[in-house]
Amino acid sequence: MSSKGACQLLIIPCLLTTLAACSRPSDHERSAAARADTQEQAVEREAAERKDQEFESDIPEFPVIPAIVVPEIVGVTPAQRALESSIHSILNPMKGVSVSPARCDNHGGLITDGGITHIDQSGRLTRNGDEGIFTIDSDGSGTANFEGGLVRVNPDGSGTINGTASGGGDDAIIRVEADGSGTYNGAAGLISLDGKGGGTWNGDSGLITNNGDGSGTWNGPMGLIRVNADGSGVWNGEAGLITNHGDGTGTIGPPARQVRMPPMPRVSPAGRFPPLKKFSPPGAPCGYLITLNDRVLFDFDKADIRPDAEAVIVTLAAALAKVSATGMEVRGHTDAKGDDAYNQALSQRRANAVVAALRQHGAAQQADARGYGEREPVAPNEIEGRDNPGGRQLNRRVEIFVRS
Hints:
Layout: H1 3-23, H2 27-57, H3 77-86, E1 97-104, E2 117-119, E3 125-129, E4 132-136, E5 142-146, E6 149-153, E7 159-162, E8 173-176, E9 182-186, E10 189-193, E11 199-203, E12 206-210, E13 216-220, E14 223-227, E15 233-237, E16 240-244, E17 249-253, E18 257-260, E19 284-293, H4 294-297, H5 310-321, E20 327-333, H6 340-360, E21 368-371, E22 382-383, E23 386-387, H7 389-395, E24 397-403
Parallel strand pairs: 20-21
Antiparallel strand pairs: 1-19, 2-3, 3-4, 4-5, 5-6, 6-7, 7-8, 8-9, 9-10, 10-11, 11-12, 12-13, 13-14, 14-15, 15-16, 16-17, 17-18, 19-24, 20-24, 22-23
Helix pairs in contact: 5-6
């Protein structure tokens, strides 16, 4: 090869290297291109956001599923009022001698009336009177059947109410459990609660279901709304079908179009039924009553204690001597036979005789004696205009009220 040809071969690679160096962009050129790309991407993002915002602006706001509201439950209040209006006494004398807890009013006076009422040694009150039938235990639990309404309250606050408007109570059927679960079927609709945050309410606003886990449904005047625990949900109403995917997106249509949509808030747990209020027998415990049928101590229409009643007096005196009392009153009573003034005097003489006999055996030293005549019967002297010998017998009695 000639020297000229060799030189030409050497020139070709040099030219290629020079051309390659000339075609490579400079650092300045690369930076400018990158800025152009960034601006273009920003414009695209802004356009997409504007498009999303346009979509979001015409999305109706999801209705909030109403909370299940437990209506106020009148509970035992009407029955309690009926009990209080009918009872002034807790005494139902039995033949012979009986001992019963005594109850006093706010002024400390012994509560007495003409009804058939009884409280046993455990404090259980029973009464069958014009206002209804009541059975109340010392812890406030019990039953009341009055004016067509039936109330039952258990010691743990659970119970049932079947009240009527005529009875002054709820015109509803209510069941309450100790854990707050229960049902209500009345003017507010049908409510069922599980005590754990879940429940249903079928009322004027439609059917509401709360699952207790943040999800629920409402089928009412706004249409059908479903909210899931993950923030997704569906609303099928006047605005059409709206679907929330719970991930920040959703669809609205038809025709369905994708939009940005925040997740839906969780449904708050439903409440619980409150425990039922318990009964409260009228008056406060203030001691006890010892009641003696007049036949135990006296002959008919007499005020002298019979000789064979000595054992009763001795037993009473021994018992009273061991009792710590703040006061004692011996109370004489008669039936309604005869003149009022005569009965008053007879009852006073009998009370005096009992006090004197007890004092002879070392008891009742500070006791007062008082006659009440026929003013405080514990049973009807007549029934429908006819004489009631059994009732009159119960009314002829002597009471020893021991205040503690």
